[in-house]
């Protein structure tokens, strides 16, 4: 019921995640970040606790692939879950449970992971991957561009409602923007991103 991208910008030392869905407040339930470790996502019939388990496993030294492979041992409902993880180093990974709602799937590139379920078809993830390759600029903007590409390719088969983006450095979460309920959540997320990047006035100054 959601499509998500996890990605890292090795040039600028940043990592992030972005997600969009026809569900309410997708940012609160799907993506998570630990600046010292990386990013993770849990979606479909979402088990929110899996995000913390994935990040904790990577914090203990397991790769994203090893963390994702552990999901069936953590959760009896693993067939209904779709999870993804990406650390600061090594390839990212994802798992799509056998019982989640079609169309569902995932893919990975050198520095990114794409996952979605209840999509209009595989063209959504294909468009997201292509958008990541051609995108430029700051990481948050690139992640939002990837979501837009997925949405234009069909996105969530039920429609649109919410979207979110997270960006972190190794020391801190730098950006956490959420659109919980909106007719055009990606347009609103883009507006919030532009607002966050605009110079801020210092209180008490006169122009």
TrEMBL record:
This is Uncharacterized conserved protein.
């Amino acid at each position: 019921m959601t499509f998500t991208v996890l990605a890292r910008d090795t040039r600028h030392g940043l990592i992030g995640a972005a997600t969009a869905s026809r569900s309410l407040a997708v940012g609160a339930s799907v993506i998570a970040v630990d600046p010292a470790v990386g990013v993770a996502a849990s979606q479909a019939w979402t088990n929110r606790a899996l995000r913390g388990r994935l990040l904790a496993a990577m914090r203990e030294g397991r790769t994203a692939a090893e963390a994702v492979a552990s999901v069936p041992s953590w959760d009896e409902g693993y067939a209904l879950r779709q999870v993804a993880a990406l650390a600061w180093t090594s390839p990212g990974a994802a798992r799509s449970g056998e019982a989640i709602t079609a169309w569902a799937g995932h893919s990975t590139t050198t520095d990114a992971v794409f996952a979605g379920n209840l999509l209009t078809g595989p063209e959504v993830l294909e468009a997201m991957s292509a958008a990541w390759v051609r995108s430029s600029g700051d990481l948050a903007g690139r992640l939002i561009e990837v979501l837009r590409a997925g949405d234009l390719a069909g996105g969530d088969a039920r429609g649109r409602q919410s979207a979110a983006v997270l960006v972190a450095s190794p020391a801190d979460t730098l950006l956490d923007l959420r659109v919980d309920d909106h007719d055009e959540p990606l347009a609103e997320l883009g507006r919030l991103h532009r607002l966050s990047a605009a110079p801020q006035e210092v209180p008490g100054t006169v122009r």
